[in-house]
Amino acid sequence: MTDVFSPPEGERSRPANPSPTTELKDKISDDISATKEMVKEASDAGLDKAKEVVSEQVHFAAHQLSGIAIALEKVGAELESSDQRHVGRYARELGRSVAGAARRVEGKDLREMAILAEDFGRRQPIAFLGIAALAGLTASRFLTASAKRTDKAQNDKARTTAPSAPAFVSGSKDNQNG
Description:
Structural class: mainly alpha
Number of helices: 5
Strand content: under 5%
Number of strands: 0
Largest sheet: none
Order of helices and strands: HHHHH
Oligomer: single chain
């Protein structure tokens, strides 16, 4: 028969007067458990946030791909109506392929996107290289424009904080004369 006041089997009973070492061990164990739980919650929240950001970026990328596809189709139509029919037809087909890729990308997660990109690269290697070249050109233009804006902002800030040039020059002339 079990005693109502005894701890359940397998559970460690604490002595009536625990030693400071035992109390410290128990406190450390509780702190470690609480820390593990906090880290798990924070990592889950961070992972959710990262998935949300990736989802937004995937939507943005699909929108950008759609824009590129439309531009390629327009260029293709113009070239077809001019004396470069073959190039125009190829550009329109490239635009259609990019539009299809944009539709397939929408709503996908990062892993699925990587699989789609790899598959697209195998099926349409020239289109894939063309998109990569356009993406590289776009990225370089964006970075160049961002760098120019940053330089301009720094120059504007330096002008507002630096003394005016005439005052500096006249001060140096006074020092030479006086």
